[in-house]
Amino acid sequence: MNDRMNRISGVRPKRGPRGLILEVGSDDARCVVPPELDVPDVDLDEVLGGAARSVLPHLPQVTEVEVARHYAHLASMNFGVDSGMYPLGSCTMKYNPRINEDAARLEGFAALHPAQPVGAIQGALELMVTLADVLGEISGLPSVTLQPAAGAHGELTALLCFRAFHTANGGPRSRVIIPDTAHGTNPATVSMCGYEVTTVPSDDRGRVDLVALREALDTDVAALMLTNPNTVGLFDDQILEITAAVHEVGALAYCDGANLNAIMGVSRPGDMGFDALHINLHKTFSTPHGGGGPGAGPVCVTPSLGAFLPGPIPVKYDDGTYGLSTPECSIGRVRSSYGNFGVLVRAYTYVRALGGAGIKEAAEQAVLSANYLKERLKHTYELPFDRHCMHEFVLSGRRQKKEHGVRALDIAKRLLDYGFHPPTVYFPLIVEEALMIEPTETEPLADLDRFADVMIAIAEEASTDPDTVKGAPYSTPVRRVDEARAVKRPDLRWSVGE
User: Fold this and answer.
1) For 232-265, how does the pLDDT look when each residue is reduced to its tens digit (9 = 90+)?
2) What Å distances lie between residue 326 and 134, 140, 252, 470, CA to CA?
3) Which of 295, 256, 356 lies closest to 146 in space, CA to CA?
4) Which of 152, 355, 425, 488 to pair with 130, CA 20 to 30 A apart?
5) Four-way CATH pick for 357-488: 3.90.1150.10, 2.60.40.60, 3.40.190.10, 3.40.50.150
C-alpha cells in the first residue's frame, strides 16, 4: 500500500477559490504525523478486489496553525446574535446567556444515554417534570409533552392529538381554519394531518375578520390555528369571542406559540380559550436558534386532551421518585427518547435564572423595545397598522419602491453594510414590501437607536442615491446573489478545477 501511495503522491489538487482550505498549505505541510506502520503492509487493490481509487483524494495539506486560522477566519465572517442586532421578525433571535450552555454541558446531563435505566436518570427526569410544570403554568395548559423537536413538529403533534380527540368523539372532521397572516408551517401541518385548509381574511386593524370566521365555522371544522399575538405583531383583542365561536361548533382552538415572547408571564393562552399551544424553547426561552441546530417545541394542552399526548411522559410519583408514563389514548411516540434534552436543560436554566417576575419583565421589555422602534420609524416608512404593537411590528417599503424603485429586499441588503442582520422581508404576505422587525428584549437602547438611525439613513439614500441601495451589499464576503437561480438550481459542491 505504501508503494502505491508513493506512485500517486505527486497528484495535487489545483488551488481552490479564495476562502477554501485548499487555498492554503503546501505539499510538504502536515497537521498530524502518523506513527510508523506496526501491522503487515497490504495491497489495497487486492483487499478491495480492484475497487481502490487510483488517485489520492484532494485533501488539503496544511499545518495545525493553518487549520486553526482558516476556521477562525470563517467564523469571523458569520453573523449571529453574538455579532450584533438580529431583528429577524417572528424568529426572536435574542442573545443566549452562556450560563445556559454551561448547564447543558454538565457531565451529569451531557453524558447521559437514553437507554439508561430510569433509576439512573432521576435528575434528568426531575428537570423535565419541573420544566413541564413551569411551561404548563406559563401557558395555562397543564398537560405537557416535551417530545417535539421544533415548532412545526409541535404543530403536527397538537393537530394529531386533535384528530385523535375528534375520532374518539365521533369522527376526525375535515377542515382546519387558518388566518391569512398564518406562518407557512400552519397550512403545511394541516395538509400533513389529512385536513383541508380554509383561510379567513384579516380586518382593517390586522385582526381575524370575525364575521368571515363565523361564516367559515361549521361541524366539519376540526380546529382553528391562530397565532396571538399574530404575525403582524398585534394582539387580537377579540380572542375570547374567537375561541368561543370555535368551541360553539365543537372545534378546538390551537395557538401557534411562535410569538409567546411578547406575553409570557403576562397573559396565558389557556385563559384565552385555547386548547393547545406549542412553545419554541429555541426562541422564547433563549436557547440556540438557527443554523440548523437542535430545537424543541413542547406542546401544552388542556386536561381533556392530555390523554392523547405522545408518550412516554416523565412523571413524579407519590413517593418522590420519577418515572415514565404513557397516556391512556396516546397518539404514540413522535420523537426518539424524550426530546432534545440539551435544549430542555437550557430552557430550564433560563426560567430558573429569571423566575416568574423576570420572565414577565423580559416580555414587557421586548414589547417596549418594539414600540420604541415603531415610533421612531413610522414616519420614514409606511406603517400598515398604526396600533400599539407587541414584540414585533411590520413596516412597508411601498413608498420607497413607488417613488425611487428601491424594494424591501434592497433595504435589507443595505443594512448588511451597516453591520445589522436584515429583518424578515415580504412576510406576512398581506403587507406589500413588508419589513418585519423584532428587536427582542436583549438589545440595549444604544443599539436600538443605531438601528433606527441606519434605517432612516437608508431611506434617505433611497431618495438621493437609489442605485447605491439597489447595488448593496458592498462589505460582505459575497455580494448579492441570484436568489431565484439559487433556489431553482442550487450548486452546493466544489469540484477540482473550478
Assistant:
1) 999 999 999 999 999 999 999 999 999 999 999 9
2) 20, 22, 23, 57
3) 295
4) 152
5) 3.90.1150.10
